[in-house]
Amino acid sequence: VMGTKKLALSSTNSYTLEPTTKGTKLTYSIDYEMPYSILGKLIDKFVHSRMEKGNIKFLEDLKKAIEA
What we know:
Blueprint: E1 10-20, E2 23-33, H1 37-67
Antiparallel strand pairs: 1-2
């Protein structure tokens, strides 16, 4: 039986809130590193797109919740 390797992704997320004349500016940052050189680069293209879409939706939902 062959063992399976799990894809390990290390990431750091940060949020910065800054007051502005119109309200608050939220800056979101994510830094991540994909394992495996060639495979990681291919997976990164897929993961980056999905993470970006998910994060945009999360931030839009957060904005709606805060403003409600």
